[in-house]
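Technical annex, item 7. During the second reporting period the consortium partners agreed on a shared format for inverse folding records so that results from different sites could be compared directly. Each record opens with the tokenized structure and is followed by the designed sequence. A conforming record, contributed by the partner at site C, is shown below for reference.
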């Protein structure tokens, strides 16, 4: 199966709040907007996020039309510490301070005005030998 693009659509109460936050802090730009939705794209990665206002009659299936709860958007970056400092200085709501897992996932989490959780992650050397990469040449 081949894909030409990938988009995440999130139901939120305040579309403009999430869209503005994502543009300001994560560098996305607006690709399209209309009443009840905003489509954003990140030029560098081609990643797209669409925010949909909760309760849109066009949302299908209706059983999944509530707010985006229990969802985590993870974005990989090159310099996690620089991003952490920048976003703290911008007053972003950090909900999980920066930490490193033994398997090499260095990350922190933040929330937008609608409570959507974004995780920035940088992959580093594992601190636990059990997670060391397998040498394919051996």
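Designed sequence (site C submission):
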């Amino acid at each position: 199966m081949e894909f030409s693009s990938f988009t995440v659509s999130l139901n939120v109460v305040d579309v403009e709040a999430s869209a503005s936050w994502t543009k300001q802090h994560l560098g996305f730009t607006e690709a399209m907007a209309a009443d009840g939705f905003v489509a954003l794209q990140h030029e560098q990665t081609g990643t797209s996020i669409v925010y949909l206002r909760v309760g849109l009659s066009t949302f299908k299936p209706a059983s999944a039309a509530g707010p985006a709860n229990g969802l985590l958007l993870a974005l990989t970056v090159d310099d996690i510490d620089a991003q952490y400092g920048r976003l703290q200085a911008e007053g972003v709501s950090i909900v999980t301070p920066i930490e490193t897992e033994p398997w090499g996932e260095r990350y922190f989490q933040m929330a937008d005005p609608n409570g959507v959780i974004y995780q920035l992650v940088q992959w580093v050397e594992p601190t636990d030998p059990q997670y060391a990469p397998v040498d394919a040449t051996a």
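The chain has two helices and eight strands. The mean pLDDT is 90. All partners now use this format for quarterly exchanges.
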